[in-house]
Amino acid sequence: MTAAADPVKLMKQEVGRAAANLIQSNSIVGLGTGSTTAYAIQFIGERLKSGEIKDIVGVPTSFQAEVLSKQYGIPLTTLDAIDHIDIAIDGADEVDPQKNLIKGGGAAHTREKVVDYLANQFIVVIDSGKLVDKLGSVFAVPVEVIPMAVTPVMNAIAKLGGKPELRMGVKKAGPVVTDQGNLVVDVKFDDIPDPVNLEKTLNNIPGVLENGIFVNCADKVLIGEVKDGKPVVQEM
Ligand SMILES: O=C[C@H](O)[C@H](O)[C@H](O)COP(=O)(O)O
Fold first, then answer.
1. How far apart are CA 16 and CA 228, in angstroms?
2. Can 112 be counted among the known catalytic residues?
3. Does domain 7-132+216-235 have CATH number 3.40.50.1360?
4. Most informative mutation of 8, 35, 37, 217 for ligand 1 (most atoms within 8 A of CB)
């Protein structure tokens, strides 16, 4: 007897494939982080291997993206060696109807923000469970903080009305440490009426490196859904 396929995995796979199919030969590609983008990286690698596309170079947004890209044979570069990014593919933790995002569930939002904002076209890949009417409805806003500033930053965030929590490791004692060697504070807000201003306000707290609110950045959102037992991709 075969086990029933996990619908969330099916949605992520399908949306990852759809995003990988947007990549054209001779392009510089921002490679995002997370379980959904991992499928896009896999399918880009498979298209390269089969000769369907050629001359792709990737800019990874995290250690995870770098490892996966190497595993699937995607040549990599750095921002010092290029003058543009044609297209970036990345996941998200929440997406509102204006295509504003919360990212950073994998603590990679700082590098992701650099790469995704630089791209001429930024494609977001999500399963339908990530859609919200208002940002912050479910997910907390991840904030990357330099370690010596964590207490004053958490105090400043509490004064703004947020509930800050230091992100702790899983299968690792102590806090999560980012690819930059910093800490992550997850901040739950009862309401985020103005994401544009909240993004700026959080980044203005001394000691904050970057937060996971992405506004006016996504060009297209590919949404994986399961209809009649089959995965389909919608576009926003
Ligand atoms: O830091 C991680 C990233 O922002 C991810 O893109 C985001 O958390 C979505 O990840 P997933 O596709 O695994 O839900």
1. 20
2. yes
3. yes
4. 37
